[in-house]
Amino acid sequence: MPADLRRGFSILELIVALTLLGATGTAIVAAIGQTHASMTQALAAEVRVRRASRLLNAIAREPRAPLERRAGRRRVEGYEVRVGIAAHELIGIALVDTGTGAILVETVVHRPRRSSDAP
């Protein structure tokens, strides 16, 4: 084979190798970007749920009378707080993300009526 053809073939191999390397590098950078975005969203969601959990714990510690006054839906600290009488002595509490409408945390607490609370 003449020397000119071998040199051209080597340049062609170099072009193919660089093209493959560039495509692979682009895919890796895209995957890293997606991973970073996913991690950022996950951390933000965790912060929202932790804040909601702290608020839920504070509300759940309240006695029956204040919980009954909270019955219904209200906005508190950027969340929609839903309080409802689930049964005779049970009160349901849920915190909802106002942006998505998703329930972040919820619980049911037992708050018996005292004889003085009876209707």
List keywords for this structure.
24% strand, rod-shaped, alpha+beta, 119 residues, 2 helices, four-stranded antiparallel beta sheet
Give a nutshell description of this structure.
By secondary structure, the chain is of the alpha+beta class. Helix content is 54%, strand content 24%.
SSE order and pairing:
Elements lengths: L2 H58 L3 H6 L2 E5 L2 E7 L4 E8 L5 E8 L9
Antiparallel strand pairs: 1-2, 2-3, 3-4
Overview of the structural elements:
There is one protein chain. By secondary structure, this protein is an alpha+beta fold. It has one domain. It is built from 2 helices and 4 strands. The protein has helices spanning 3-60, 64-69, and strands spanning 72-76, 79-85, 90-97, 103-110. It has a 4-stranded antiparallel sheet. It is rod-shaped, with a radius of gyration of 30 Å. The N and C termini lie far apart (105 Å).
What is the terminal-to-terminal distance?
Answer: 105 Å
Beta fraction: 15-25%
Q: Could you give the order of strands across the largest sheet?
A: 1-2-3-4
Unreliable stretches (pLDDT < 50, length at least 5) are: none
Mean of all residue-level pLDDT scores: 88
User: What is the number of helices?
Assistant: 2
> Which class do the helix and strand fractions yield?
alpha+beta
Kindly provide the radius of gyration, computed on alpha-carbon positions and rounded to a whole number of angstroms: 30 Å
